[in-house]
Predict the structure of PST family polysaccharide export protein.
Amino acid sequence: MRSVRFAASSMRAGLSPSAATWVLLQQVAVRGLVAVKFLAIGRILGPIAIGRVSVALLAVAIAEALSDTGLAQAVIQGREMPTRSELGAVWTTLLARGVFVALLLVALAPLMASQFHLDGGLLLLQLAALLPLMRGIASPTYFVVQRERRFQHIAAVEIAAALADCSVGITLALTGAGAYSVLIGMTLGEALKSTLTWVTMRPRPPLALRWSGIGHYIGFSRWIWASSVVNLVLNQFDKIVVGKMLGPAQLGAYQMSSRLAQMLLADAAIAMSQYLFPTFAAHHRNDARHAARLFKLYLAIAAAGLVVIVFVLRLIAEPLFALVLGPQWMPAVPLFRIFVVNMALGALIAVLVAYLRARGDARTAAQASIMQVVVLFSVVPPAMHFHGVTGIAWCMTAGLGTAMLWMLLRTVKAR
């Protein structure tokens, strides 16, 4: 009877709204749908179309990183629950940011099209401006739900949005919409997610423009903004170089090999960080030593698993590309073998960043990113000269390794 009661208790705990089970379910469903969408559309459209979409998404990533407020992380990490008035000020700020980024993208679309050799791609770039606008409309109560670790609720919203994105994107690609199918699907997915944050999440912030009351978040969020700007350089610099110097076809191969490696490795850790950040923060508020022990356990498990996965993926790279994407993508295999190493390092960094931010040390993550930028700028020019696009990929590995070692050193010294 005791064993039966224990099993029932364990099952209830595993399915409680704050259980990691929901984060895992969200990870499998959302990343699976994203993988199906990009692999299917990549096979249908080929490298050039994927390269064109990559330029549009690159523009969005640049604008959003430069305008990152860090308010989401500040709400989750803060000791006090935000009031409705404070949530209203957060929403006003994020809405203004979304409108600003959207207008900026529309204005800069002609310049981006000319710089990245996108003949006839002006409308594609302008369509991408809808993404930050849809994200800015979302209710900031989403961050409160994350703070309270209501992962079941988050999983339902994220899976619904991903399903809409995937189904619409593939349907449009099959009907001949080309590169537009990716952006239209993403926009509808973001619109559904924003709608669900207002319809299903409480408390709702007041629908009135408020510009004050969140000054206490600035000290923490400024380091998040600094990290976002630096991460912009780290995550997009290589794509800018490839797209500018080599054109959409090479960018498409580079992006797809990177994206496939990310789907198979880094996405799991990034999604898990959605669970780890609020979990580490909650434990740190109560017992810093227990939070540190929990961090070491998760880091050790992640490192052991990643070593095995990297070895297997490098071994099966060629048949994997032939089966999933077709012969037109085979030139991207060498890049994929490099990117699986990069994404494994990125997965470990995601665990480190979740812990550092949870204990209020966003500065160390920003410093690590700056070190990564220094390494990247130092080695990319000679590496590209002698080894081309694969040299750039290996430069990313060197930068990620440097950042990870610095964060590990800081977590050890802090104890």
User: Anything to note?
Assistant: The CA atoms of residues 171 and 399 lie 39 Å apart. The two ends are 43 Å apart (CA to CA). Residues 18-213 form one domain. The chain is about 85% helix and 0% strand.
